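Let's sit down with a protein and look at its sequence and fold side by side. Which protein we use is up to you, so please pick one and set it down. Label the sequence line and the structure token line clearly, so we can match residues to local backbone shapes. Go ahead whenever you are ready, and we will take it from there:

***
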Amino acid sequence: MTDQTRKRAAPDTGTPGASLDAGQPRRRTRTREALLSAGRGLMAARSRDGFTIDDIVQKAGVAKGSFYNHFADKQALVDEVCKAIRAKEEGQIAAVNAASAEPAVRIARAMAVYARFALTVPDEARILTDVWVDALSLDSPMNTGLLHDITDGLRTGQLVTPSVEAALLTVVGQTAVLLSRLQTMTPREAASLVQQCIALTLLGLGLEHRAAHLTSAQAVEEIVRPGRNGGAEPPGLETAPPAVSGRRNSHRPR
């Protein structure tokens, strides 16, 4: 084949080498997604310390060298998987709280979203349970919304706690316990337990007894309880619009 024939055979892409590289971004994306999917599966089936990079690339069906084109080490992949899962749930929380400005209501509904997550996607909940200690920091970007609600509640007097950090640990700790406990329960079985745990959390944050129970009942009714689209619902939860103005003034710090 002459040089002239080669020129006629090669498509004019406008960019030298573009015809060879056109599929590379797609291949990189597919490889990255395969690695993340493999890592997510292994994290759900085992603890984060229970598998190696070799396990990941074998499950993903890619060469080991490809792993390091996307992640510096196994921890980087673990962090990415957890970040994606939690970001998805934080997006759900933002959606359910879009119409509410009351800190106690927002906290209750956020906990209810995570409870629903544990009930409906237990494999991913298991992943977060394994690494939840990473969420116990005031500096964690994923805690920005919760910190805003806590500080707003303390500023307005709706919440009464010794410190912002104590309040954050109360909410995150109780949510972690729910994530772990609910993975083997059905939504119908779990509704009462979730309501009780959210109510206890709100009481711990200084909310008045009736307000805490009504707010937790509302969150569970709207987010966790099954049967809202026509199915049967078990009795036992009182539902009412959130009533969160009450607080226990005797616990207000001086």
About this structure: The chain has twelve helices and no strands. The CA atoms of residues 86 and 142 lie 8 Å apart. The chain has two domains: 23-71, 80-228+235-254.
